[in-house]
Fold each of these.
Amino acid sequence: MQHSGIPALSRRAGITLCSIPAYGTHTHSRGRLKSCNFSITWDVFLERGRLAKPRLTLNRTRNPQSVTSSLASTYKTLYSPRMVDPKPAEFRGSSLDDLRAFPLSARREAGHQLDQIQNGLEPDDWRPMNIVGHGVKEIRIHDAAGAFRVIYVAKFADAVYVLHCFQKKTEKTSRADLELATKRYRDLLKELDQ
């Protein structure tokens, strides 16, 4: 599929964000075999600050491709989680300073994983931390300098909350790290209820 790319979203009402053309070939027979090339253009636009239903335009063209793959690619592009604004990351307590203390390669990996979470995707290596609280997860980072962990919660609509960042020195997560993450999670819940 060929497409023009998706520009940054604008908040003005009624503005067209982008046009994504998809090309294909259709063959049918009604007594004889006939073939025609066509293009389908999806116009993505905003109405009152929200993404509106894409408009579909059918045109004849000379650039044939697979209809199914073109439409599937267009659908994936239009409904990609990347089209929504990323959630901000909010670091609780000393978690930002703890993250900055990671070695450079572990810090970069943690930043990449947090970026994925902010954009609605899952990190590459994670596990649930139900012992800390409902919806809390742990990013696992393996580096030449050791094992590093980032405990976060992303179930709230307003932000991704990073509860605790630490280097794991033993096979089992220490009680002190779990208690600190649990305390920060409880404090967060109290803050959000008010």
Note: Strands lie at 16-29, 33-47, 50-51, 55-60, 89-91, 126-128, 136-143, 146-153, 160-168.
Amino acid sequence: MPAGPPPSMAGAPEIHFTSEGINGTAASMMANAPTRLNLHPSMLNEVQVVAFSPAPESHLLDLNNSHETPAEEFRTLRTRLNHLQTLQPLHTIVVTSPSPAEGKTFSAVNLALAQSHLAEASVLLGDFDLRRPIVHNLFQIDRAPGLSDFLTGQCSFAQALRKVESMNLYLLPAGSPVKNPLELLNMRQARLLFEELPRIFNWAVFDTPPLLFSAGFHRRSMPLTGTCSRTRCSPRGAHPCCSRKFQG
């Protein structure tokens, strides 16, 4: 699905921080679920490298341009998050909002890009919106293999990832379409994935479904254990692209 333009940051999506992750299981697979995924940093050497070739309609911000107000907003948010990380075991950022088309993807993608610009940071951007995934379109990569393929045992974790060339950014696309994405995300494998990601990545940023359409997933799967904040951008002097709606 092609992306629309980015939103006004006023009333923008909430960003939830968790140091744990998904609780709950899919009963049909619980008996055969692993107790550990054994993720380790050496896996990243096996990840496919892709060129940084964002779609023209993606509206990714130029975070090296200090004169762009939205870019400065994300750099400021990055600084605050990195400070919080020195105070608590904070590694996972879940971006969500009540309804569709409120800028979740815009916020998740640009925050991940901002974090990946730091030399010491290894950052994962994951698409957990399995019904309406869009991250793969923005970066013009294949949707599969991805998250759903890994959780169902169709590929390894390294095979589900893509590394953006010359950047510290790794992409986890949604993967092959599934009939019941919420049940898949409540599997034990998903919970283990959240628990073990800090072994590999300094930050993991997830684009997730709207709360009104996936309340069970957010309530059961991602209990909040850290800070909850809301990103905002002043309409005055905002980047022109922020005055239009962005699909996400």
Note: Strands lie at 14-18, 48-50, 92-96, 123-127, 162-164, 169-172, 203-207, 228-230.
Amino acid sequence: MYSVSENGALRKINKVDFDENKVFLVDDIKTLYLWFGQKASKKKKNYSINRAEKIKSERDKPVKIQKINQNQEYGSFLAIKDILKKGLTRDNIERRPELKIKFEKTIELIEAGIDPDFEAEITLSSHELSQKNHSYDDLARSLAILQLSYLKGEASENEIKAKTEEIIKSSSTYDELCWLIAELSKILVKKS
């Protein structure tokens, strides 16, 4: 984790204060997050992008660069934001486990005569969706449409495209997208 100075130098830090004048570079191995404060200078932002590109070029494995503006945080960054505020300690530096759909256990419970609860319904729906082998991009678009529908009703094609791109840039796994689609679909049905 680094704070980017006005001259482009990276200063190693243990905690992110999310000050509106600052730029932070957070290295999550698969993703390099660039967080831009609302009042951060263009010069500082450009330096941080160049530094991230350099780090990316030196890696053996593919790395995404995700640019995040203050008060527009999304995706997997939201999952680590509180940890970044508190600071890295031995207790919280483990990577979050990736979601795995536990379909078999849910089926066992249903076969044992237990009625499926909300989580079990989502598990069944997300497993069914994952078996259809939709492309990652198609799942991202489906999730974008559902999120926008939940938040504002109808959305324009441009809004859907922008939200889809935002979801693609997040580091969500295929199973996580299936789970989120299934969950939001169930919530929308209950809401209506």
Note: Residues 108 and 179 are 19 Å apart (CA to CA).
